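Obj.: predict assembly geometry.
Materials: sequence records (below).
Method: joint structure prediction, all chains together.
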Amino acid sequence: MDKIIIFCEYDFDKNKIKDSSYELISKAHELKKNARELLKDENYNYLTEAVVLADEIAQSEIEKAYKTGADRLVLIKNPIFRNFDSIIYSKAFVEYYNQNPSPWILFPATPATRMTAPRITTLLNTGLVADCTGIDFVLKDSTLKLAPTRPTFGAELMATILSKKDPQCATIRPKTFEIKYENNKEGEFLKFDIDIKETSKIKTLSTIINKEENSYFKDAKIVLACGFGISGDNGIYYKKVEKLAQKLGAKIASSRKAVDYNYMPHKYQIGQSGENVAADLYIAFGISGAIQHICAMKNSKTIISINTDENSEIFKYSDYKIVADAKKIIDELCKRYSIE
Amino acid sequence: MNIVVCIKQVPDVDDIKWTKENNLDRSQMLSKINLYDDWALNCAIKIKNQFKNVNLTAVSMGPMQALEVLQYALAKGATRAILLSDKFFSASDTLITADVLARAIKKFVPDFDIIITGQMAQDGDTAQVPVSLAQKLNIVDLIYTQKIINADKNTVSVNQKIENKINVLETKTPCLIAINDKQEGCTPKIEDYIRAQNKQIEIYGAEDLNLSKEQTGLIASPTMVYRAYRPKSEREAELINENIVDKLSEFLKG
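Observations (raw structure tokens):
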């Protein structure tokens, strides 16, 4: 039987598999239906195999993996995995994979996995489609091919990319899919003991945690988003939007360019290498609408955009458009809300 | 001490021009150094200025036009520049790009101590080449680097910023560092460019790396674009052109 592997990330502090991994388990399980339709074979099936690198795994997590869609959970077992090291993780996974191959591997596009997955695919001499926002199968030469889709800056905007070689691999951006439960679903649990002689070549001297930056956009009702269109003037318009946000109890979002040019701190960035946001009201000040930004905010309920360029991309994704200098509107809003 | 910086020339992603058919209009767009690679270059120059006898080699893979970013690197302070250019290289994906870079570094800078790259390219956004390159060279990588704390011939330490956490990491050379945050640096002046003209940029192709047509570029790349499209929006924007601030305040009231 065919098999799809989900490379899962284990949270050793909370003793659980991360949500971004469960999202992929559910999606992989759901895609069986698409595979059957494509093959026109209602009896076709493949195995959804969740693979975890850890020393042990809580029983409740094993049950949860089955209920969210895994047919099998494999624990690649060694205490060394408690301390993440991309070289050790990738070699261990490849050792398991070479004995238990499959045509498809999905990775959550979290930082640790984005450090590990390219090492794995380089060792396996195969491709890796990065940071995808969609996944499906297509039929090519009458075989099922994994068809991940990602925003890209190629000849067009979104690209569906296939792999000519097996395993066909992709990293998928967290929160792209929902975790779905089937309460009666069962599965099997396997252990793969692994001997590792290597030690990490990287020493962690210290770790600093900035609690303030934790999920800034969680439950955001109103988001005021700043683009590069309000740059210049020593960045005063970003400060004005910050004051407006404070007054209105809103959150601030930023385009990548405004962060790259140091107008805004990284914690406000949404889209590529930043967060996603689904607000009740999203107002974009001087944002042109890079695809990564749009993907990250398009699930907001009401979107209003202000831009001088009548043809700017962001207007296509907005409910209301204002063709004007966003700086002027910010000034007027500040006046309305009595902000200096 | 030998430092290698990998740089890429990219179209200006902040100035996207579209044709009527919804294709990128590259002829109307400017090319420039990938912003993350410019930060990598700034880090490398800072290290070079701290020590005597640092060789700083800038390497770029791309069309002949990419000579521009190498001239820029020389003007900024690189001591050597290598362009990897060949029609067979075109349309290489991340695995093949890493392979070409790894072969070139092994052959032309075999005694490297540190490789510095940008975390990602603005036109590709994959962030996979640095990790894949480190794997091909069998060295440690420190990606998501916010700041290089110290780097000498033997040891490197960095701040690695991941979400709300900063890890202070240390490793032995040789290693690869990928820069993910802004780094201050100087903009080269005209006299720097004139001085840089005295340096010959080395140009190598597939043959110089013992690569055949089948081993590189589009043919060898394991991934291929199956379908490309611009996503359709489900919204249609209504124009607000009067009483703008009144209407905005209404929305803000909820």
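Conclusions so far: The mean pLDDT of chain B is 92.
To do: check interface contacts against the pulldown list.
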